[in-house]
Design brief:
By secondary structure, the chain is mainly beta. The chain is 0% helix and 52% strand. The chain contains no helices and eleven strands. The strands form two sheets. Strands 2, 4, 5, 6, 9, 10 and 11 form a seven-stranded mixed β-sheet that branches. The protein has a four-stranded antiparallel β-sheet with strand order 1-3-8-7, with no helix packed on it. A hairpin with a 5-residue loop joins strand 5 and strand 6. It is globular and about 45 Å long.
């Protein structure tokens, strides 16, 4: 399984950014996989942000991003997105996409992308 994240960059506070993650591999031939977004800021632990099941019917969010970030997927293209709005300087971090078998709300994500840097200036 390979995951390739993209879309990071520098944005001003209050701005928007859309991250994408392209997945490939046999995991995506299944009907019980989930994908998610995480981030890690310097000196901090990795933080779960949002997860979605393969059908898109189950979406979960961390309280820190609920109402500002929206997770979505395109099954036909094995692509995951994270639409981020109302960005704050504290959202600055490396953002990672991840995938797993099973539900998106359990912590055991098995596959990870390489990360994309998001920097929010004040």
């Amino acid at each position: 399984v390979q995951l390739q994240a993209s879309g990071g960059g520098l944005v001003q506070a209050g701005g928007t950014l859309r991250l994408s993650c392209a997945g490939s591999g046999r995991l995506f031939e299944r009907y019980n996989y989930a994908m998610g977004w995480f981030r890690q800021a310097p000196g901090k632990e990795r933080e779960f942000l949002a997860g979605i099941d393969w059908s898109g019917s189950m979406r979960i969010y961390a309280d820190s991003v609920k109402g500002r970030f929206t997770i979505s997927n395109d099954n036909a293209k094995n692509t995951l997105h994270l639409q981020m709005s109302g960005l704050k300087p504290e959202d600055t971090a490396v953002y990672y996409c991840a995938a797993k078998l099973g539900r998106p709300d359990t912590p055991n994500y098995s596959y990870w992308g390489q990360g994309t840097q998001v920097t929010v200036s004040s």
